[in-house]
């Protein structure tokens, strides 16, 4: 156990003594802030949009976290959401209009066909009988 603690101190000391760097980032107002190095025994701390050097490991902002901070800000998310909603509304309107227009035209065609057929009487009996001698004249 003692050997493990010594090894951890020997291997971890250069990391603590060296300090760390805060990478460049966009602050709350969207302005670019260049990266900076922290002095020994301090780390890059804070949030994605506000970074500073501190000695508290609980506030540490790792390099991985710093690199993955470029998530969606509320304004960007609102823009994407409104664009998606507009797209869905346009598609739904087109589908509804096409469906309603098609149904309307089919209904009108059916009504016209029905009105044409109502005016005509179609005999439902067989052919009229032919007079005698019609087929074979004498």
Describe the structure.
- With 138 residues, this protein is an alpha+beta fold.
- The protein is 49% helix and 13% strand.
- The protein has helices at 2-18, 63-67, 74-119; strands at residues 21-22, 25-26, 32-33, 36-37, 43-47, 50-54.
- The strands form 3 sheets. A two-stranded antiparallel ribbon has the order 1-4. It has a two-stranded antiparallel sheet with strand order 2-3.
- A hairpin with a 5-residue loop joins strand 2 and strand 3 (32-33).
- The chain starts with a helix and ends in a 19-residue tail after the last helix.
Overall helicity: 40-55%
Question: What shape does the CA trace take?
Answer: rod-shaped
| Secondary structure category | alpha+beta
Secondary structure tally: strands:
6
Distance between the termini: 134 Å
- Give the neighbour order of strands across the main sheet: 1-4
Output mean pLDDT: 76
Biggest sheet architecture: 2 strands, antiparallel
Number of helices: 3
Cα Rg: 42 Å
Enumerate the spans where pLDDT stays under 50 for 5 or more consecutive residues.
Answer: 7-17
Order of helices and strands: HEEEEEEHH
| Proportion of beta-strand residues | 5-15%
What's the multimeric state? single chain
Set out the fold topology:
Layout: H1 2-18, E1 21-22, E2 25-26, E3 32-33, E4 36-37, E5 43-47, E6 50-54, H2 63-67, H3 74-119
Structural key phrases:
138 residues, alpha+beta, two-stranded antiparallel ribbon, 13% strand, rod-shaped
Task: Offer a concise description of the structure.
It is built from three helices and six strands, in the order H-E-E-E-E-E-E-H-H. By secondary structure, the chain is an alpha+beta fold.
